[in-house]
Amino acid sequence: MTKFPRFFTAGLFAAALVARASADTDGVIAQARAYLGPEATLEAITSLHYVGTLVGEETVKDQDGKPIRRPFKGTIDIIFQKPYYQRVVLVSYKGTEITALDDYEAWHRLQDATDAKRWSLVLLDKNQIKSQRANTWENLAFYRGIERSGGQVEDLGSHVIDGHVCEKLAFVHEPGLTFYRYFDAATGRLLLTEMENGSRVHEQGEMMVNGVRFPKTLVNTTKDPATGRENTIVITLDKITLNEFFPEGLFAVPMYTGK
After folding, report:
1. Cis peptide leading into residue 5 (ω within 30°)
2. Whole domain around residue 79: which residue ranges?
3. 1 within domain boundaries
4. What b/e string do you get for 188-211 counting C-beta neighbours within 10 Å, with b at 16 or more?
5. Rounded Cα distance, 189 and 120, in Å
6. In whole angstroms, what separates CA 193 from the centre of its chain?
7. What does DSSP say about strands 217-223 and 164-174: parallel, antiparallel, or unpaired?
8. CATH code at 117?
9. Which of 62, 205, 222, 257 could tie 199 with a disulfide, CB 3.0–4.6 Å?
10. pLDDT in tens, 213-242
11. pTM of the predicted model, to two decimals?
């Protein structure tokens, strides 16, 4: 009988584990995509446009300088377009905030609500751009194909979320930039997304648009690093549009006009 070196058999075993893990993740992703809608429809999506409202709480100081919690609300308009374009417009009592990604450039602009001459524009740094690109991919790829951009998917086993047995997958874009997603094992529905910074997004309700399922409500929970207190913002989607075309100039860094 032929004997193989120990490292050779160990290598075969490791390769088998990798193949099995890939098969497991492929199955979870296939089920999750099937839950969302027809394969041909998902593949044909080139852009997503969300319009909705948000409510939350923020910490402000009272007349005595003591921190208090105060509710706030606003409107939100979000665009994702392939390959890597993103634009988020948030309007609240503070003013209008625009955060945008133009492939390898990203920026944030704040316009004061009471004085049009008071505004600021900041270019985002390399890590922020990487995060924006990953977020855009996550919204448009519908869980499949991260390997083509240098990432990978890892199966982290079964977990229970809100009473549902879920399969936890890690979508690793690069070290330090991972989306952890929990899919209902019975249906493939996405119930929870976690980020490495501790933020969480629960998906609730349902909207059907052109045969594709989307959540009606997104409950976004983050933790204040200074106080350790959790802050929650609830986004309710009123309208979702697929496959609109948006000119690249909409995402480009605004030119300074002196106004």
Report:
1. no
2. 10-250
3. no
4. bbbbbbbbeeeebbbbeeeeeeee
5. 40
6. 8
7. unpaired
8. 2.50.20
9. 222
10. 999 999 999 887 767 778 899 999 999 999
11. 0.86
